[in-house]
Amino acid sequence: MVCATIALAGLTRGFAGFGAAMIYMPIASAIMDPKLAAASLLLVDATISLPMVVSATKICDWRTVLPAAGGAVVTVSIGAWVLTNADPYVLRWVLSCVVLVLLAVLVSGWRYTKAPNKRTSFGVGAVSGLLGGMTQLAGPPVITYWMSGPLPVSVIRANLITYFFFTSFGSFAAFWWNGLITQELLLLSLLICPAYGLSIYLGAKGFSKSSGKSYRLLAYTLILGAAITSMPILDGILR
């Protein structure tokens, strides 16, 4: 089940440049300890996504990516502390609710009309880092920020790939400090890494043949399905 989930997450990550955590974390957290789920996604994603980063850095908007990454690094350790000490059941509800609220913002058509600047980018990154350390859901704030603006799909995707690469360093340090890097984590990561790597490759191939409309529609549909099916209230029906 975990391998199937990480494969679906990888398809979305390769195709859209984001969405892996929004698919993997709610479902995986219903199967295992959310701490283990978050750390395993961090480890395999940072390793497997390196080839995507190389091409993304050539077209991303560095003026907003770097301040956002800086804000995330500042707050990620706070989120990791919450992850270490919070109740797993409560975290699962937080995961589902955060995903649904921010997905609703994206689907609503709301657009951030102001020109992106360093201060706003830093603030969005700080919120993203807090959520990332707490749930590995660093994506929704920066996704909403960049996808609601005027940037083309290719640049948005490159921004997200580059941003997640830089923030993974801060996340890894915070997880290590809070004792989340364990032998159990390394064994799990070795198990799911092949499925994630293959699915990211297939997702990236699919993006090269897609349109901006299909890009958004597929990502929204997968994220919505993951958020709903992973709600604790449905455990008696689905698990």
TrEMBL record:
Ranges annotated as spanning the membrane: 40-57, 64-84, 90-110, 122-148, 160-178, 185-204, 216-238
InterPro entries to which the protein is assigned, alphabetical: TM_pro_TauE-like, TSUP
Keywords: Cell membrane, Membrane, Transmembrane, Transmembrane helix, Transport
Topology of the protein relative to the lipid bilayer: Multi-pass membrane protein
Major location category of this protein: membrane
Top-level lineage group: Bacteria
Subcellular localization: Cell membrane
Recorded family membership: Belongs to the 4-toluene sulfonate uptake permease (TSUP) (TC 2.A.102) family.
PANTHER family for this protein: MEMBRANE TRANSPORTER PROTEIN (PTHR30269:SF37), TRANSMEMBRANE PROTEIN YFCA (PTHR30269)
Protein name: Probable membrane transporter protein
Biological source species: Pseudovibrio brasiliensis
